[in-house]
Design brief:
This protein is an alpha+beta fold and about 70 residues long. This is DUF3107 domain-containing protein.
């Protein structure tokens, strides 16, 4: 699942891939924004991304990468 997080006053969005479901990510975002806490999401590479809830501008939760571009042999 691909997640894009827009952060206030940041020129670029945070983009990550996670194994969590759409509903799980939505619950985490909602809780972080309501409580002004921290949004914590683990990505597929084992990293934990932390974003302050009061700095979240928007979140896009999608299906992931549609296709790979490259050459095959």
């Amino acid at each position: 699942m691909e997640v894009k997080i827009g952060v206030q006053h940041a020129p670029r969005e945070v983009v990550l891939e996670t194994h969590e479901t759409l509903d799980d990510v939505q619950k985490r975002v909602t809780e972080a924004v309501k409580s002004n806490g921290t949004l914590a999401i683990d990505d597929v590479k084992g990293r934990r991304i932390l974003v302050p809830g009061d700095k979240i501008a928007y979140v896009e939760i999608g299906g992931g990468v549609a296709g790979q571009v490259g050459f095959r042999s």
